[in-house]
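hiii so um. not sure if this is the right channel but i have a protein structure encoded as tokens and i wanna go backwards to a sequence. like what aa goes where. can anyone help
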């Protein structure tokens, strides 16, 4: 008669003894896949999104000027306030910002008082009256194209970061890569002969 070995009880990542399979996820998943995301998170009830939201300010070519990552539960207008507060002492030549309809209301007055010596005007890009379905709004799609560029990089395809500052830094690194590639395409490197 062989001796039976008893295995140690499985433990959750938190170190507690497992009470139910739902507590730690599917038992056959690896530890890396079973860990839940940590850090600042939320739920956006309008877009039905868990996690975080990226707020970016771009130039007319789609190049990044500023970025802020917040929990998804932060309203877009409040996230824009965090983003535009960066402009108080930077981007002094910036005079006009185009924004989506979500950013209207009190944000326009708040931005007008942000820099009393050099005013910034917030212009809301509105859909034409009576339009239904998909409609291309040219000034708004500059931002959407930039988000599309971010999606080509594995690290930004999903939010893998623990801290929002790390996520912001990864967005800046990706944009540096995009700008360097664009510069290299315009002026190729010539070797001296």
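sure thing!! here u go:
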């Amino acid at each position: 008669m062989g001796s039976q070995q008893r295995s140690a009880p499985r433990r959750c990542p938190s170190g507690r003894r497992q009470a139910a399979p739902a507590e730690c996820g599917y038992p056959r998943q690896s530890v890396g896949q079973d860990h839940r995301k940590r850090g600042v998170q939320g739920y956006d009830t309008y877009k039905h999104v868990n996690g975080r939201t990226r707020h970016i300010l771009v130039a007319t070519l789609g190049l990044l000027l500023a970025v802020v990552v917040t929990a998804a539960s932060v309203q877009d207008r409040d996230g824009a306030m965090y983003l535009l507060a960066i402009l108080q002492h930077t981007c002094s030549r910036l005079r006009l910002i185009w924004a989506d309809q979500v950013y209207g209301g009190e944000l326009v007055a708040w931005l007008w008082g942000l820099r009393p010596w050099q005013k910034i005007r917030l212009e809301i890009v509105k859909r034409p009256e009576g339009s239904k379905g998909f409609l291309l709004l040219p000034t708004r799609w500059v931002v959407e194209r930039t988000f599309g560029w971010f999606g080509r990089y594995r690290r930004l395809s999903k939010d893998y970061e623990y801290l929002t500052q790390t996520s912001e830094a990864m967005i800046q690194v990706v944009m540096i890569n995009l700008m360097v590639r664009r510069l290299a395409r315009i002026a190729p490197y010539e070797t001296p002969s």
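oh and The chain has seven helices and five strands.
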